[in-house]
Write a structure and sequence with these properties.
With 311 residues, the protein is of the alpha+beta class. 21% of the residues lie in helices and 27% in strands.
């Protein structure tokens, strides 16, 4: 019996020293002829994503179809916030031939992806996203997100599809209040007059403010305080105080944000039919930031308009 136990111990020791077997290797390219073209993609994104903040696992479903004469090797999805002023991406698949695009970022995209997902073989026919960043942060209200799908075959032929995920207004309960936070309203530099914007930004603002008006109409028995917020460019202290109040030649963050909040109120009243008696406005300047002023990846969130709903 002792000999058997010893032999079993030696066998176990040899197996343990040998370690786990190496991971399986990808199979070689299939014998079919190289098509020298990327897969044909059919992608359908809902026109407006209306996530419910009270439903933790609320998701958007994007349908994906792939047609290709050879097997698909892998796919990758990348989602980033679309920055105001950037041209809208193409809504049709763009054939890339043999050029490998997966994992590369185009000019003008942010350095950190909002969300990434990938897999081997064909992408899911119905791909679901819970509207959260990889870190758990939820999407922003009335904001466009750049959706990129790259699908590759075993010959490195790939196709890149680009589209837009547009989110609806998110009404979040905050104690006895309701709060809407919108960072996507565009203003001219150091000004509040929407008329100074280019046509594309004015059109974007009209769409965003129409969504906000629709949300406010659902709560027509609430009064609404419109708060303007700005992103400071200096650390707290004397310089920040000067930046907040302004000078004879430079408008301060507080009066600027107040003028912008008033511009939003005027637009809602004059263009969207919201009763002016329900609305009031104020400017907070850079006194209530949600990100560090010098965080280039996140400080865009400081420049926002908040709508505080109270009975």
């Amino acid at each position: 019996m002792k000999k058997i136990i010893a032999m079993l111990f030696v066998v176990s020791l040899i197996v343990a020293c040998a370690g786990a077997p190496p991971p399986p290797q990808l199979p070689p390219p299939p014998p079919e002829d190289n098509p020298n073209a990327g897969p044909e993609l059919t992608v359908a994104i809902p026109e407006l994503f209306s996530p419910d903040p009270d439903i933790i696992e609320d998701t958007i479903t994007i349908t994906i179809g792939v047609s290709h004469p050879v097997p698909i090797r892998d796919w990758q999805i990348e989602i980033n916030r679309r920055i105001a002023g950037q041209a809208a991406p193409r809504q049709e698949p763009e054939q890339q031939g043999r050029q490998r695009q997966g994992g590369q970022r185009g000019a003008g995209q942010r350095s950190r992806s909002f969300f990434e997902n990938s897999g081997t073989g064909n992408p899911p026919a119905e791909w679901k996203w819970n509207r959260k960043r990889t870190t758990g942060e939820m999407v922003q209200s009335a904001t466009d997100y750049h959706f990129v799908l790259t699908v590759s075959d075993f010959y490195d032929n790939n196709t890149r599809y680009e589209g837009i995920i547009s989110t609806d207004v998110l009404v979040v309960r905050d104690g006895d209040l309701l709060r809407i936070v919108v960072p996507s309203i565009v203003f001219p530099p150091n000004a509040s007059d929407f008329a100074l914007l280019n046509e594309e930004d004015r059109r974007s603002n009209n769409r965003v403010l129409s969504l906000i008006a629709r949300a406010l109409n659902r709560f027509d028995d609430y009064r609404v305080m419109v708060e303007g917020h700005a992103n400071p460019t200096t650390p707290p202290g004397r310089q920040r105080d000067i930046e907040e109040t302004g000078s004879a030649t430079v408008i301060g963050l507080r009066p600027l944000s107040e003028a912008r909040a008033k511009a939003v109120v005027d637009h809602l009243v004059n263009n969207n039919g919201i009763n002016s008696e329900r609305l009031s406005s104020t400017g907070m300047g850079g006194t209530r930031t949600v990100a560090a002023y010098n965080d280039a990846d996140e400080n865009w969130k400081n420049r926002r308009v908040e709508f505080i709903l109270q009975r």
